[in-house]
Design goal:
- The protein has one domain.
- The longest helix is centred in the middle third of the chain and has 6 residues.
- The model has no long low-confidence stretch (mean pLDDT 81).
- It has a two-stranded antiparallel sheet.
- It is built from 3 helices and 2 strands; from the N terminus they run αββαα.
- Helices cover 23% and strands 14% of the residues.
- By secondary structure, the protein is an alpha+beta fold.
- Strand 1 and strand 2 form a beta hairpin.
- The structure holds zinc ion.
- Zinc ion binds next to helix 2.
- This is HNH endonuclease.
- It comes from Pseudonocardia saturnea.
Length: 70
Amino acid sequence: MDTILGCPLCTRPRTAADIHGLAWSSHHGPGGVVFVCGPCTRAHLVDLECGLIDPADARTPAPGRVARAA
Ligand SMILES: [Zn+2]
């Protein structure tokens, strides 16, 4: 299981303060749990809640997604 340390939508790194805060939202998928930063959660709230964007699915195209090396 890969651990994504930053927001999968904007690649902002998740700091220790973010881990202890409540701004980031968690999204659970078969590959594990990913966390989306507060600004992206607010900007894509409808898409996230309706399942139009699944940040836990690496195949989902998303604004600002950066391809990661395998
Ligand atoms: Zn973000």
